[in-house]
Amino acid sequence: MTERSEGLIGVLLVDDERLIRAGLAAIVNAEPDLRVVGEAGDGAEVPGQVSRLRPDVILMDVRMPKLDGIQATRHILENVPEPPRIIVVTTFENDEYVYDALKAGAHGFLLKRTRPEDILRAIRMVVHGDTLLFPAAIRALAAEHRGAGRGGGTGARWHGQLTEREGDVLRLMARGHSNAEIAAELFVSPQTVKTHVGNVLAKLQARDRTQAVIFAYETGYIVTA
Asked: How far apart are CA 33 and CA 8, in angstroms?
């Protein structure tokens, strides 16, 4: 474990492969604003590590022998006040575990073959409140579960809850657009977009943008993005 200085973004690495953790640690610790504060070889170790180290971000493997990343993610988000941001890490983007982890509240996912610069960008993005959306991958995963969500296969029941502009914002969220990009597309201010996003999340009872987009795909409200 490396001592964290004031102002650094603390990262907890969770993976049952020591070599993967070592590679991620080298990437993270080479950055002036990031620091690995701890490592865990299984999801069962995560609650204690989070309580003791208070990381800002967790890079969480989804497949581990004792407690997988889905259960660990759910436990952290349900039991830790002001929980860290969680990025799940996987080998395959169509991994069923990834979908379940995103539904549990993970803020995005990365493939283990992701370029180092994109891993660093992802860490900084989630710390600043953004969600990592990969529209094609999420669309493919959600398509397999269409009809299994809260909408029973159709968005009709909750569709009327969204205003026309909120629907526009949700569709642009599904394309992976940031608030600034949505604002430019709709010719409104970023603050207005932020308000619309908040309304969408509240009406769909979604924790974040990823959950809202997954729900929209599952129910068939969004078919293509």
From this structure: 5
pTM recorded for the entire structure: 0.77
Distance (Å, rounded) from C-alpha 96 to C-alpha 121? 25
User: What is the rounded distance in angstroms from the CA atom of residue 9 to the CA atom of residue 36?
Assistant: 8
Decide: 13 and 61 in contact? Cβ < 8 Å: no
What the chain holds in terms of domains, given with CATH numbers, is 9-132 (3.40.50.2300), 146-219 (1.10.10.10)
Q: What is the pLDDT of residues 74-129, one digit of tens each?
A: 999 899 988 999 999 888 766 677 788 888 888 888 888 889 998 998 899 888 87
Query: Among 110, 150, 154, which Cα is nearest to 134's?
Result: 110
159-179 per-position pLDDT tens digit: 568 999 999 999 998 887 888
